[in-house]
Amino acid sequence: MQVYKDKGERTDAASWDDVEQATGEAVIHETTMVPMTKGEELEKIFVNMDSHALLEFRSKIKNPSADAIELANRKYYTSVYFHALFLYMITKNRGYQFALPGEGMSTSVTNYMKDVLNTDYPMLALNLEQADSELSVLA
After folding, report:
1. Cα Rg of the chain (Å, integer)
2. What one-character-per-residue DSSP string does 59-115 give?
3. Less crowded by CB within 10 Å, the N or C end of the chain?
4. CA torsion 52→133→1→56, rounded to 10°?
């Protein structure tokens, strides 16, 4: 689900406050995504459409028309959503468990996902996808 600081008139989206009420997780500009689970089941993936990662990605558009911005938004959303989904499924299906360095405590799959996907990973994925698109045009 797409998440905005202020969802405005969007009926198919959530606000940062909605996500915090549903998950207990605060959403800020540095947040890329927030997974919502029920037991072992992944219920929703909230993708922050007002994140620094998306704003930085869109700032690299040479001719920022409405269509180009919409395309960047869709690429970002699908990239983050599917990477989060794949990461969750692979991690759960393989039974991986994680411990934080120096703390000796295990962490949940959702915390691991947030840690990985709220870093520079989304920009790397988007830049690789963009480079791949540019190479296919040249071929």
Report:
1. 16
2. HT-SS--HHHHHHHHHHHHHHHHHHHHHHHHHHHHHT--EE-TTT--EE-HHHHHHH
3. C
4. 10
Nearest CA to 118 out of 6, 34, 36 is that of: 34
- pTM equals 0.80
Going residue by residue through the chain (139 aa), what tens digit of pLDDT does each one get? Answer: 999 999 999 999 999 999 999 999 999 999 999 999 898 889 999 999 999 989 988 888 888 899 989 988 998 999 899 989 998 898 888 887 777 677 666 777 787 777 777 776 666 666 666 655 554 555 5
- The H or E element containing residue 19 is helix 16-23
Give the angle subtended at the CA of 122 by the CAs of 99 and 110, to the nearest 5°.
35
Where on the phi/psi map is residue 77: left (φ > 0), alpha (ψ -120 to 50), or beta?
alpha
The Cα 44–Cα 34 span in angstroms is 8
